[in-house]
Design brief:
Blueprint (H helix, E strand, L loop, with lengths): L3 H13 L47 E7 L2 H4 L11 H17 L1 E7 L9 H5 L7 E3 L2 H9 L42 H4 L2 E6 H6 L6 H5 L5 H8 L3 E2 L13 E7 L3 H7 L6 E3 L5 E3 L4 H14 L4 E4 L4 H7 L3 E7 H6 L9 E4 L13 E2 L16 H28 L9 H10 L1 E2 L2 H4 L1 H5 L5 H7 L5 H24 L2
Parallel strand pairs: 1-2, 1-3, 6-9, 6-10, 12-13
Antiparallel strand pairs: 4-10, 4-11, 5-6, 7-8
Length: about 475
């Protein structure tokens, strides 16, 4: 979980900042720099100090130009800020980059790839051209690089400590045959932006005399049964036309095909592919818990209290209009101001657990998020590791708090519990090799929830049975590549 010190810093900043208008993006960032040998004065609830950057303080790379290839548009903004503009997130990225450049005596050169799902650097790496120090493709595109064996194993990069909190602790789930070909963490806000949670309409819960689920979350009791019991209170044909329509009527819960249906798997603590102790990917999707969870989820989403959104965001509009109690929402959508025009007072919670035995609130992270690759053409891994570690450390100190501030500056999310809820969502991010590397490992089972909501005649068991053997064969054939690396 993001260190509680960060939470305290954010709460203090929120209290002293001017209350912004709904959805504005100009809240100043008052975070202060500290050296890599300092600890933050704020401490977590258990008085554990923030981690320090364990690198020599006198590193000097003599003005080296550190070359990064990034995807365009909003993904480029995760890493590039050419100047301070007054935008909180932009200025945090600019400040982080400036700190790293000054501390290590380097200069960033950030190039833009030609398309969102690019593999622009692949041919140059295969030709042994040292064109980039780091490449930043989408998660699924990252495995195109991996299967061509052009990625450095992150475990072999000096000066990178993946046990530190500024690296996502679940990312090692993507390791194949003991090698981690791509990585993610607080080095950018991309992972958090791609994570999902839920928002709930406070007024509707008040009207129905239902307690907000915050306490259930903090006690570890926010389960799918509790959630389902809550949202099934809401189903009303408001215009009395005898039909339940998203444009007119009241619903309890809505999701689209990319969010809730896949998180119905992850909320159980299970995943499509689990890498065994020998580094070999195993198909682990099928279990009694997963079957039961999908039975419950499909029953809810297809009921009169649920709305199954197969395209677009009509359910989000219904929520903004006050006609839906709870919806799944990406953290990037909150930060981008999707609910800027909402007239409802709403709260944020993580997606519920399937049951109390699950150890945390797991969050699906969209496969479009950025993963970081170090090409095998990189000429100085020690230097690269120091730069990446420093970027991630100051990303945790500067960029992630700024993202929190942006996400929570909506006037309806400025309550004392919102920061804590965002912590749970960040902490639960899931990296599933079967979902991310769908062409080599997931195959026909790479997104079972999507398939079930598009063909509601299917049961989970039937879907699994149809694809089990082909996926196992796919894994076996794909692993021949990695066993030779």
């Amino acid at each position: 979980m993001l260190k509680r010190a960060t939470t305290l810093i954010l709460l203090a900043a929120l209290l002293i900042s001017t209350i912004a208008s709904c959805g504005s993006n100009d809240t100043p960032n008052d975070n202060k720099d500290s050296s890599d040998t300092e600890t933050n004065d704020s401490t977590s609830a258990d008085t554990t100090p923030m981690e320090t950057l364990d690198l020599p303080s006198d590193l000097n790379y003599d003005g080296y130009t550190f070359r990064i290839l990034s995807r365009p548009d909003g993904r480029l903004d995760e890493i590039l800020a050419e100047t301070e503009t007054g935008d909180v997130l932009n200025d945090a990225v600019y400040k982080r980059n400036s700190i790293v450049e000054e501390k290590l005596n380097i200069k960033f050169e950030i190039s833009q790839s030609s398309a969102d799902w690019e593999t622009d650097a692949l041919n140059s790496i295969l030709a042994s051209d040292d064109a980039y120090d780091v490449v930043l493709p989408a998660a699924r595109a990252a495995f195109i690089y991996a299967q061509n064996l052009v990625c450095t194993n992150w475990y072999d990069i000096p000066n990178v400590d993946l046990s530190k909190s500024w690296w996502n602790q679940d990312v090692t789930s993507l390791a194949i045959n003991g090698k981690l070909y791509a990585c993610a963490g607080d080095i950018s806000h991309g992972t958090l932006k791609g994570s999902i949670g839920m928002v709930f309409n406070k007024q509707l819960l008040d009207d129905y005399q239902i307690e907000y689920p915050y306490e259930l979350v903090t006690e570890g009791k926010w389960t799918f049964d509790e959630f389902s019991k809550m949202v099934t209170n809401f189903s009303q044909d408001l215009n009395n036309d005898g039909q339940m329509k998203i444009e007119d009527d009241l619903f309890g819960y809505g999701s689209n095909h990319w969010c809730g249906p896949i998180n119905a798997l992850y909320c159980t603590g299970e995943r499509i592919i689990t890498v065994d102790k020998d580094g070999y990917p195993q198909l682990t999707l099928y279990s009694e818990k997963v079957v039961d969870m999908y039975d419950k989820y499909m029953k809810l989403i297809l009921s009169e209290s649920g709305w199954n959104q197969l395209a677009g965001n009509t359910h989000h509009q219904a929520f903004c209009d006050g006609r839906m109690a709870m919806v799944d929402i990406g953290m990037g959508d909150i930060a981008s101001g999707m609910f800027r025009e909402a007239t409802v007072d709403f709260g944020l919670v993580p997606w519920p657990k399937s049951d109390e035995s699950v150890d945390k609130y797991y969050s699906y992270v969209d496969a479009g998020q950025t993963l970081w690759i170090v090409p095998i053409t990189n000429q100085d891994l020690e230097r690269t590791g120091a730069i990446l570690e420093t970027m991630a450390y100051y990303g945790q100190k500067e960029i992630i708090p700024a993202f929190y501030d942006i996400a929570l500056q909506n006037k309806y999310l400025r309550d004392d519990m919102s920061v804590q809820m965002l912590d749970y969502i960040k902490d639960g991010g899931v990296f599933d090799l079967g979902y991310y590397n769908n062409t080599q490992f997931g195959g026909g089972l790479a997104n079972p929830g999507y398939d079930l909501v598009h063909d509601t005649t299917l049961s989970f068991t039937t879907l699994y049975s149809r694809n089990e053997q082909s996926v196992k064969t796919l894994i076996e054939n794909s692993m021949k590549i990695y066993l030779e690396d």
